[in-house]
């Protein structure tokens, strides 16, 4: 019985780590989308640079299980979008304005993927809770 309860706790902890990682991923995606059309505050300056979350696995020694963690958030090194807008205050000497390297379609795809991963982890927690409840019901009868 002790192993069963630790297996339940391990399942819940692993799924919880997935929820935390996906929530962090959603935060980064929301920052990217929020800044998709921003420009530099200085003429000719660089705008917001897209951020990319990374994940890593770590051994949780108390649970003796591998859990996922949100790793470093790295800047996307792709080129900025450039538009010719000579009247824009952020324009450089030749009238070009740099916009962030954020593609809304890519961000929406990443958000959908994060949402599905979040739901999968949430389903694991719900299934584990149902199994615990069924076990308690069996023990009561």
Structural account:
Strand 1 and strand 2 (65-75) form a beta hairpin. This protein has one domain (1-140). It is of the alpha+beta class. The relative contact order is 0.20. The strands form two sheets. Strands 1-2 form a two-stranded antiparallel ribbon. Helices cover 50% and strands 21% of the residues. Helix 1 packs antiparallel against helix 2. It has two helices and four strands.
Task: Draw up the topology in text.
Layout: H1 2-34, E1 51-60, E2 65-75, E3 81-84, E4 96-99, H2 104-140
Briefly, what is this?
The chain is α+β, with helices and mostly antiparallel strands and 141 residues long.
Structural domains: how many: 1
Q: Pairing-aware structural class of the strands and helices?
A: alpha+beta
Rg from Cα = 22 Å
- Helicity, in percent? 40-55%
Enumerate the strands of the largest sheet in spatial order, edge to edge or round the barrel: 1-2
Apparent shape: elongated
Biggest β-sheet description: 2 strands, antiparallel
Order of helices and strands: HEEEEH
Mean pLDDT: 93
Q: Give the percentage of residues in beta strands.
A: 15-25%
Contiguous helical run count = 2
Which runs of at least 5 residues are low in confidence (pLDDT < 50)? none
Question: Could you tell me how far the N terminus lies from the C terminus, measured between alpha carbons in angstroms?
Answer: 17 Å
- How many β-strand stretches? 4
Multimer state: single chain
Family: Belongs to the flagella basal body rod proteins family.
Domain Flagellar basal body rod protein N-terminal: 13-39
Subcellular location: Bacterial flagellum basal body
Domain Flagellar basal-body/hook protein C-terminal: 94-137
């Amino acid at each position: 019985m002790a192993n069963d309860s630790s297996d339940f706790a391990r399942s819940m902890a692993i799924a919880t780590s997935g929820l935390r990682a996906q929530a962090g991923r959603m935060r980064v995606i929301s920052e990217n989308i929020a800044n998709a059309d921003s420009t530099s505050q200085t003429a000719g300056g660089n705008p917001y640079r897209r951020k990319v979350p990374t994940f890593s696995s770590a051994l949780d020694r108390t649970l003796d299980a591998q859990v996922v963690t949100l790793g470093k958030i790295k800047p996307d090194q792709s080129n900025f979008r450039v538009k010719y807008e000579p009247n824009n205050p952020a324009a450089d000497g030749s009238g070009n304005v740099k916009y962030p390297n954020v593609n809304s379609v890519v961000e929406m795809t990443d958000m959908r993927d994060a949402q599905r991963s979040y739901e999968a982890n949430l389903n694991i927690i719900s299934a584990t809770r149902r199994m615990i409840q069924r076990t308690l019901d069996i023990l009561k009868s």
